[in-house]
Amino acid sequence: MQSSVLVSTFAEIAREKGIERDTLQLIIEDVFRAMIRKRYGSDDSFEIILNPDHGDMQILHIREVVLDWDLEDPVTQIEYSVAQQSDPDFEVGDEVAEEIDFKDFGRRAVMTARQTFSQRIRDIEKENVFEWYKELVGEVVVGEIYQIRRREILVIHNKVELILPRSEQIFRDRYRKGDMIRAVIKEVSRDSSGNPQIIISRSAPLFMERLFELEVPEIDEGIVEIKEIVREPGERAKVAVISYDERIDPVGACVGMKGSRIHAVVRELGNENIDVVQWSDDKVELIKRALSPSKPFLVQTNDDLDPPRAKVVVRADEVSQAIGRGGINIRLASALTGYEIDVYREISDEEEDVEIEEFADEIDADTLKLLRDIGCDTARAVLELSPEELVRRTGLEEEVAAEVLKVIRAEFEEEEGGEIEA
Fold first, then answer.
1. Domain spans of the chain?
2. For the chain: N or C, fewer Cβ within 10 A?
3. Residue 67 DSSP SS3
């Protein structure tokens, strides 16, 4: 194969891959210099003249003329008698430029050059993909699902493979090959082989933030800002927003007319329930808003603890709303505000209660301390908690938590029984 044909082939491949002309020229020169080094041991005495657009190439071997008996390195030097054969005007110390016939490298060298060129192109493609998607971290992309695996979904975007791990999926989603999917680019890295790995996410708070930006012009324009998002993907989320224009209601802007804006976000996220609340720098006010839809009438904070805690009192009929199914509302409110929140129901003056210390004979001191630490300093405060919530907040074993509730509940049952007998 002639050098011009090989160079033209390289140029065509580069055009298909979108490789710039200057980069192509450097690659081709590197490939041929590798061939030269393999044949001659060094490429210092060689010059490559290349025009990849036309497939023109020359390889010149440049050597210094030395006296025949002074020849030490035939790669960098040429004997005076040999130089005189090509041009009688050559003198000792002159440089002789001789064109190398491409055929002299042999077929094996040409095959190696092809392989080296292809590998360099692949490396450049990898680097371009890495740099391109690195700039897109935090942006939403739409791709096509082409493979569903047990631990991940593979998505094609602009002919590039994106990975949606199980941990970044919304558990309610159902995926089918060929479906279009929207997600945010979360992370771009390289695997052990240097290949770019692009991780996308549908469960990240950032994905929800980008969806709101797409649906709410006021956010995109900077009039309304999302201060914080906390999610349990597919279940529920809380979004705290603030307006920098007193004429704009930030919550209303996010919800839209008849819920049109927020419904678009909810549909994309598999009907995830979203509470939008107005941000406040007043922590007490923020805690009240974060516990929506309940309406606490008393909040006491303790910032000396780590994490800081907040005691919240709500009406008896709002306790379940404040805590939420499985404790989800109070967990999200705690994450949004940065306070570990303890919810108590309002106790009327007529309603009897018992200090938790009264159970010292039946409940050990360590357990009583754990109950006091979460704000349960009375019996009814403990009974307001479900067994699951008591275990989560105190760290007690399930059997111990069940026994605590049994002991305290028995106290009130005895009182009620005594009143009936009387």
1. 3-131, 139-203, 204-279
2. C
3. coil
The model's pTM is 0.70
Pairwise CA distance, residues 108 & 102, whole Å: 12
Classify strands 298-302 and 309-314 as parallel, antiparallel or unpaired: antiparallel
Q: Residue 105, SS3?
A: helix
294 burial level (CB within 10 Å; 0-12, 13-18, 19+): buried
Q: Is 197 left (phi over 0), alpha (psi -120 to 50) or beta?
A: beta
Q: Which residues pair with 152 in a beta bridge?
A: 165
Domain at 3-131, CATH from 3.10.620, 3.30.1480, 2.60.40, 3.30.70: 3.30.1480
Question: Which CATH code fits 139-203?
Answer: 2.40.50.140
In angstroms, the CA 55 to CA 126 distance is 26
CB atoms within 10 A of CB 282: 10
* Eight-class DSSP state of 378: B
CATH class assigned to 204-279: alpha beta
Instruction: Tell me the pLDDT tens digit for each residue of 311-355.
Output: 898 887 888 888 888 889 999 999 999 999 988 777 665 567 778
**Dihedral pair phi/psi, residue 45, rounded to 5°:** -100, 20
Residues 93 and 64 sit within 8 Å (Cβ to Cβ): yes
At 346 the three-state DSSP class reads coil
Q: Which of 20, 47, 21 is nearest to 33 (CA)?
A: 47
Letter string b/e over residues 84-105, b meaning 16 or more CB atoms within 10 A of that residue's CB: eeeeeebeeeeebeeebebeeb
